[in-house]
Every structure is written in structure tokens, then in C-alpha cells.
Amino acid sequence: MRLSFVAWTAFLTSRTFVDAFVTPNVNVNSRVVASSPGSRDPNRNQVLRSLATKSEDEEKVAGKVLEGGKVIDFESTRGPSRAEDALRLAKEEIASGNVKEAHLSDKILGINDDVIAEVGHDLGLFATNDEIQKCAANLRSKAAQGFFERRPSSVADTYDEINSSTSIAPEQKESVTKILRQAFVESGEVTSAFAKTFYLGTQLMPENQREAIWAIYVWCRRTDEIVDAPRDNDDEMLSDLGVWETRLENLWKYGEVEDVFDLCLLDVLIKYPSLPITPFVDMVRGMLMDVPDLGTETYDTFDDLHLYCYRVAGTVGLMCLPVFGCAQGYDEIIAKEPALSLGVAFQLTNILRDVGEDATTRGRVYLPMEDMERFGVTKEQLFEQRVDENYTNLMKFQIERARMYYERARRGVFMLSEESRLPVQSALDAYGKILDKIDDNGYDTLTTRAYVDKWEKLSIIPFSWYRTQDISRKIPLPGDKQIPSLEEPAP
């Protein structure tokens, strides 16, 4: 089971964002009382209270508190794990020039045969390296002075010198513009092929935002493909991933690119200069948590699972936040916690929806072991796909936890710029609907997959639109509660 990038900005579906990690920061979250998307049970809080086993002085629900309380921000925390140590060593080999090139794909890294087959044609091969580097030089010339560091005698430095020494001829400008435009077209095709719900959400955005989100999605997709591609051993994967992360660092630091899809990400970085590299790096760490023999086989506590959810989905919220933009009076610092919460909500929804599939086809269990033990559910039961009262109660418990994160995320919608609210709210509502479907299926996620079809998703949009209007905060839709008070705007 891989990340919900669909969820993220469905948002968001792929799965899965230094060497040094710090102790988790603890933030205090204001009381949340609004109903979550897809919530239809007025007595659900009573159900939760009956399920909770810890005292009120401790955390009520497996390391989190439903009605407000602390939210652990796992950004750049924990580790290093075995996989992270192995990746660090691979990057050291690359830096020393000892990396073996033999196993690297002769195609664009992360765009393998499966991706090409899904889209239906070759990708990223419409421009020569010379054309790509000229386009990159043109993009770098648009960045603020000093935004990128210079690396003397590098390819980027050479092309920048040529670009700055003579004015760009009209036909050359037309050529580089055409290359970038086609790169975004193919990014949209990849997004549409692998994340249809996500792609539908992007159609509600202005062009610049839509293309930026496609570029981010393609980077996540490629990272996923690099980790999952069949290879003889993990060393080859780590070497490819080391090359990939080094490329990312060089793009952020020097504005260097290797292919046309890098051009898209470079364009996004220049247009949205507050875009941080941290969530991209953390997503790689999340991908590694799924690698057999290197990653995490089970999650003992919800805090352990929360780290995974942050890395493979919460990171996407942080990637997208600069693109979405904030409403006047708010900033990305204030909007960060709701963005993280939405990513975690989406990933928890994926996990609950795919319990049976993950167990039977991948041999993976993502549900926290402490919760399974509390409700009397065993791993063998998941592998045998046996649904009983214990499993039903466990699912009810996990669904309410996911809804808590949706509730926290709802507070952030009005913190976003007006043009970004509808796509995010639509994604929030559509993905939250999956929890209702699990309810409708009798909480059987072992043999039945909860599914929201295209027409249901489209039918949600008018209601999502109303929820983005100021009047909805005073006159909520039937079944909705008033959105909790937002934090005070930033001065």
C-alpha cells in the first residue's frame, strides 16, 4: 500500500518526505468540536470515550487526544534507521565518485516501463540535453539574485555564462518556452494516469498552481518507482536513490537539472521560493520504511505509525502549502499543522481501506500493534481475513481517530488563499467519504474495499464549495457543525 497523493490535493496518491534527526516537537492544539467530513454518527464521541482505556491525565487515544491537546510534529524527527544509514553510505559513495552506473536505467530515472505503459507513450524524450540546459539557464535567470549558489565549471554555470553574455534570441526563447510547456503537459499525463482523483482536484485550480502540483506529484511518483523497481539487491536501489536525492539537493542549491521533469520542479521552486526541501527528503525516508529487510515491518504504537504517515503523506501537505498560498493575515507557519493533519488523515484512510489487501498481497500490517492487542485482534486474523466483533470495534476506533485529523484539517481551509480552498475542501470531503463507505460495508476492510465512484465525487463539489464560503461558518450545512475558531491572524 502506497501513499495517498490522491488524497493530497485529493489530494493526494503514490506513497510514501538529515542525516541528523531531532527530538519531536510538541504543540498544543486548540479544542476541536466540529464534525468531520463523512461523519454521520452523532454518538461517535461517546463510542470513542467507551473505547479509550487511558486516564484523562494520559493521552486518550493511542498517543493522541481527540478533542484538542498535543499534536506531535514529526518533521525531520527520529532515526537514523538501518535504511537511512544505508542511504547515507550510498550518498557518500556517490560523492566520492565510486558509484556504479551499470544498474542505472537507460531511461529517465524513475520513469520506467510501467509508467510509460500506463501513460501510453514515451515520456521526457522530446528535448536534447543541450535544449534542457538552455531552458534551465533561462529559468535560473528569472530567480532572485543569489537564490541559487554558483558551482564554478559546472554545466549549470557554463550555460548561465552563455545565457547572461548574450541576449536570448526570440526563436530561442520560443524554444525553451515550448520545452517547459511540453514538460508540464507530460507531468499532467503522468498525474492523470496514476492519480485520477488527484488530477480531478487539480482541474479546479488556476493554471500555475495546477502545473506546480503536477510537478510535485511527478517527483513523488518517480521516487516511488525508484524504490519499488525490481532489482537484484537493495544496494542497487539505494545507489539509485542516493543519486536521486543528490540530484534533489543540487536542484535546490544550484538550480541544476538532469531532465525535462526536473525543469518543472525548478520552475516551481523559482515561482514559490518558500518551498522547503525538507518534506521531499523526509518522503524518501518514508519510502524506505516500506523496503523489506531495511524498513519497518510493523508499528508498535500509533506514534510510530504517525511518523510513517507524516513522511509519506503529511509531507505532501508541506510541499503543496506554498503553492496553495495563505489568506491575508495568515502565514505558512500557522497553516502548517492543518496541512500536516490532512496528509495524516488521508494516509490513515488509505491504511484502513486497504487492511485486507496489504495483509494478503503484501504481507504488511500497518495497524498499531498496541491497538490490535487492546481490541483482541491478531495478525493471523488479518491474513485469514476474519471479520468479527473485535475487528469491527478496532475499525470504529481507527475511523474516529482518522476523523479527528480531518477535523483538525478543516480549520486550515480558511487559512488558504481563496482559489485554493475549493480543491482542498473537495479533496477533504471526497476522501473523508471513504470512511462512510467503510461504515456502510459493516467495517469489513478485509474482504471489501471501500470505494467512492467518480459521480459521487463530482456530486460532493457543490457542498464543498458552500463549505469554503464565509457564510458556512455561521450557517453550516445540515449535519455539519460550525468550524472551530481559527487562530489569531499573524500580524
Automatic annotation (TrEMBL):
GO terms for molecular function: geranylgeranyl diphosphate synthase activity; squalene synthase [NAD(P)H] activity. InterPro entries: Isoprenoid_synthase_dom_sf, Squ/phyt_synthse, Squalene/phytoene_synthase_CS, Trans_IPPS_bact-type, Trans_IPPS_HH. Pfam families: SQS_PSY. Gene3D superfamilies: Farnesyl Diphosphate Synthase. Keywords: Carotenoid biosynthesis, Signal, Transferase. It is an enzyme of class 2 (transferase). The keyword Transferase applies. SUPFAM superfamilies: Terpenoid synthases. One of its GO terms (biological process) is carotenoid biosynthetic process. Residues 1-20 form the signal peptide. It catalyses: 2 (2E,6E,10E)-geranylgeranyl diphosphate = 15-cis-phytoene + 2 diphosphate. Its EC number is 2.5.1.32. This is 15-cis-phytoene synthase. The lineage of its organism: Eukaryota, Sar, Stramenopiles, Ochrophyta, Bacillariophyta.
